[in-house]
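Predict the holo structure. Ligand: guanosine-5'-triphosphate.
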Amino acid sequence: MNLRADHHGEERRLFLLRRKIAAAEATLRTLEAAILQARSAQGLATAHDARLENERLLAQNHRMSQESVSVNAALQQAVQAAQTDPLTGLRNREVLWDRLAHDLSLARRHGKRLAVYFLDVDDFKQVNDEFGHAAGDLLLQHVARVLLASVRDSDTVCRIGGDEFVILASATLPEDAVQMGTKIGRALGTPCVLAGHVMAVSASIGCALFPEDGESPGVLVHKADEAMYRRKRARALER
Ligand SMILES: Nc1nc2c(ncn2[C@@H]2O[C@H](COP(=O)(O)OP(=O)(O)OP(=O)(O)O)[C@@H](O)[C@H]2O)c(=O)[nH]1
């Protein structure tokens, strides 16, 4: 038996084995390094994606709040248009009942009076017939301006149709309400130039007072309308 040769063979196997182990360890380290690199790349990609998603959501949020602002503006415009008389810019018939109920509850709570005036322009048809419909429109706009200038900001002026207007005004004493009716009549009677013609508007005005003449919106408007009609008849008889 050649012991020396055996020993030499054993050493060679060990040497080869160590080399294999070293190669395997090197491969393992390379793999670990690759895994680490891949994980960190994935991490970076995730952070990048998150940032992009965040920016996308912010932009979407901005777009949606801008849309909501313009939808709200359009809605407000629509509400405004539904409550406004297009010719004079005054509140229309639809608003009258809401305002009246609101003003009545305020008057009730504060123990105040509320005056409801019903106003109809006299012989308005003649203005249309003599000077044309456009001149009639100018006159109605003039009436609206005069009425607005004659009442307080907290009072309400509505055009409820044709040449008919209703005013809601808070009042302390019945005499105040009478005085205000006279003041409105005088202001309307002041001559003005419309469509190149000098005109002085005459209007029949009826007034009903809360709580003396009634407590409900329907009764008050009806009584003011009746009072206006009596005025108009008396005026016709005077002529
Ligand atoms: N220019 C114009 N005329 C209108 C408008 N709406 C209604 N009218 C006219 O207004 C007139 C209203 O006439 P009436 O109130 O019936 O009659 P009036 O001549 O005022 O007579 P009295 O009320 O009895 O004094 C009608 O001729 C309608 O055609 C409008 O928006 N513009």
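The chain has two domains: 1-83, 93-238. The first strand starts at residue 113 and ends at 121.
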